[in-house]
From TrEMBL, chains A, B:
One of its GO terms (cellular component) is cytosol. PANTHER family: S-FORMYLGLUTATHIONE HYDROLASE. One of its GO terms (biological process) is formaldehyde catabolic process. Belongs to the esterase D family. This is S-formylglutathione hydrolase.
Length: 276, 276
């Protein structure tokens, strides 16, 4: 693991790191904030998965999470949203290819060679974080925004033993039922929609996946609310399954980091309580 | 005044606005955060002047001021650092020309036609803010970073009746005594260094300018500390003049927004106390 940059911030260290990923076959970059801590201490870890077009840098620069992470003594890890590099296949649109990995292991050519973000986030990067940072991997939470909210929900639902807490900001709750999801999962996984179900939070719940509770913040002025995000589908699935969903519709907020940063301290505190 | 964008954030509105400036002869863009407030209320105003290479957007995205401004009920105005546009003269280097206005009224050709940032910040933009926002112009404070810290100190010192509170992050305290300042002021004002003194915080103090107190945060790992920033010159000037300078050397912090955002809540609270 190579250190790209480190900056002292809010008493801790905001770092950017690069490593060669076996999962994606590329170099991968991620951001990690480690608060000030006692020597030898092991801190809980909150994962933040980012949305379409983002890298590790967007939330690092605009997320306003460091004050809260410092207050609660939580490490925040912000991975990239896809493999990168000249040899990685891409698509001219913003919602497929680079910057749009959708946290799946692609099975369709040419994507399957590199677009293995599920394995990267679920297996490879946690092992690296455990080895390189003062992280207590028995205390992990996960959150994310939009496509990254989809990632947080699906990875959280598939791994309830790993994550004690799952939240999301304006998540895509069902790729099976929105244009972004249909385009991306057709491309990465093919036409057989049964293979998509493990990458769809609502379908995972319908198929038996369980977490005790979920926190979601959603702006009611979000331009993607009705055609892409559809939080009511998650509400229905959680109600049927008996999952305690707290869905907060936030009046006047849109899909931007101005929305995320406003409610970030709430999410960090909510995770901190569950990771204590 | 034209609205470029508005986003709800921390209960208030983060806006970006554009207007035709008589001072610079160009279109100018600035950011304004207006917290939630009672109808008819007039809020104190904190000006944030940005550093070299910045626009209005850097602090807006990375400054982490909104939570504190919402808590204290303060408007924050973030102007651009120079005139912009294809017709505006420029220089190939980062520390002169566009993005490097140094908050002076240039007297040398070709800069004097547009680089009139002193008049813009001191006269034109305040009038616009007073007219367009719920601002109590009797309660203004000013701060800034690096070149913008120079701007905040010099504008604050020249206008003690307008600003009740003056602070800075890692400011250039004496353009007369650093390479950035010597280059820029030679270009904008010419070889006669006596004309520079009204744009030099230390010289202004030596020449009799007074404010009751100044707060400065400065990282001790700042890469520009010893050759450009030289806070000891401000300490010496304030000590001689009897100005109450609080200079906090922050261990391990650099010149970046990771430093600024860490201490931003302190500065907002400090100004709020003085603008109450």
């Amino acid at each position: 693991m190579e250190t790209v940059s480190v900056n002292k911030a809010h008493g801790g260290v905001q770092g950017v790191y690069r490593h060669d990923s076996a999962a994606t076959g590329t170099s991968m970059t991620f951001a990690a904030f480690v608060p000030d801590h006692e020597p030898g201490a092991r801190l809980p870890v909150l994962w933040f998965l980012s949305g379409l077009t983002c890298t590790h840098a967007n939330v690092m620069e605009k997320g306003e999470f460091r004050a809260a992470c410092a207050e609660h003594g939580i490490i925040l890890i912000a991975p990239d949203t896809s493999p990168r590099g000249d040899d990685v296949p891409d698509d001219a649109t913003y919602d497929f290819g680079k910057g749009a990995g959708f946290y799946v292991d692609a099975t369709e050519a040419p994507w399957s060679a590199n677009f293995r973000m599920r394995s990267y986030i679920e297996d490879e990067l946690p092992a690296l974080v455990a080895a390189e940072f003062p992280a207590d991997m028995a205390r992990q939470g996960i959150t994310g925004h939009s496509m990254g909210g989809h990632g947080a929900l699906t990875i959280g639902l598939r791994n309830p033993d790993r994550f004690r807490s799952v939240s999301a900001f304006a998540p895509i709750v069902s790729p099976l039922h929105c244009p972004w999801g249909e385009k991306a999962l057709t491309g990465y996984l093919g036409q057989d929609r049964t293979t998509w179900r493990k990458y769809d939070a609502c379908a995972l719940i319908e198929d038996g996946a369980r977490v005790p509770e979920i926190l979601v913040d959603q702006g009611d002025a979000d331009q993607f609310l009705s055609d892409q995000l559809k939080p009511e589908l998650l509400s229905d699935a959680c109600r049927t399954a008996g999952i305690d969903l707290t869905l907060r519709m936030q009046p006047g907020y849109d899909h931007s980091y101005y929305f995320i940063s406003t409610f970030m301290p709430d999410h960090v505190a909510w995770h901190a309580e569950r990771l204590a």
